[in-house]
Amino acid sequence: LELPRSQVRGELAAHELTFTHPTIGLAAPNPPALDQVNFQILPQETVAVVGPIGSGKSTLANALPRLLEIAPEQVFLDGYDITKVRLDDLRAAIA
Q1: Which uninterrupted H or E stretch holds 81?
Q2: Cα distance between residue 83 and residue 64, in whole Å
Q3: Total-model pTM
Q4: Which residue among 4, 11, 21, 65 is the one 20 to 30 A from 84 at the CA level?
Q5: How confident is the model over 17-50, as pLDDT tens digits?
């Protein structure tokens, strides 16, 4: 999906966002770094993401520009599923 920067309003939303980092080798499965996270950030709104070490702040920050492979239908930019938006368009909109 092409999303020209001129059409971006800037609404960001997550619906039941869940992400678990892959397990390496024979290690026990990792617990979810993000577990059913929900939020809506409106255009021009400023939001702070705070929490203790290991609470998922960096994972969330890496999921938004698709530096991590998240499942479809969890994060939306202006109502568009970010997994369907062209990567260049998504990153330009977030920057």
Answers
A1: strand 80-81
A2: 10
A3: 0.89
A4: 21
A5: 999 999 888 778 899 999 999 999 999 999 999 9
Distance CA 90, CA 94 (A): 6
- Hey, what amino acid is at 67? L
**Of the candidates 93, 95, 85, which has an alpha carbon nearest to the alpha carbon of residue 10?**
93
Q: What sign results for the dihedral spanned by CA atoms 58, 59, 65, 66?
A: positive
The Cα 32–Cα 65 span in angstroms is 19
Tokens matching residue 85: 């938006």
Tokens in use for 17?
Answer: 């966002």
Quote the tokens at residue 52.
């203790």
